[in-house]
Amino acid sequence: MSEICFCGEGNLKEIHSLCEIDIVGNIVEINSYYSVCDTCGSETATANQINKNFLEVQEAKKRFIPRGNYCYTRNDDDTVSLCPFWALREDKPHQENGYCSYMRSGDWNSDDLSLLWDQVKECGINTVDWLDEA
User: Fold this and answer.
1) So where are the chain's domains?
2) Which three-class secondary structure state does DSSP give residue 116?
3) Strand intervals (E) in 1-134
4) Model confidence over 10-38: pLDDT tens digits?
């Protein structure tokens, strides 16, 4: 059953198409979900479509989170590449100033021990089981 448009006359038809977004300086294609009214042609997104779009973006961001248990990876040439979503907040006290824009969370708003300030991953994305590395 289709939803009725806010114009009051038409029905909304779901459309999905590929769109390009910028994630930390990289252009990535994701699915975009929205609806078009079959009468007035208005485009809108339902709450469900907004949620699907958010999940598409979060899934695309995962590609840029380094593998391992830290917010960085050591490259073959011994250089270090930081997770593009990790940062330190200078307006927060030391050891309470780590921030992850992927999670939209920082050390200061965690009820548990948080080690983002020390670049220990909290997102759980692309982590490695220590036993698998042995």
Assistant:
1) 12-64, 72-128
2) helix
3) 12-23, 26-37, 43-44, 72-74, 80-82, 86-88, 98-100, 105-106
4) 999 999 999 999 999 999 999 999 999 99
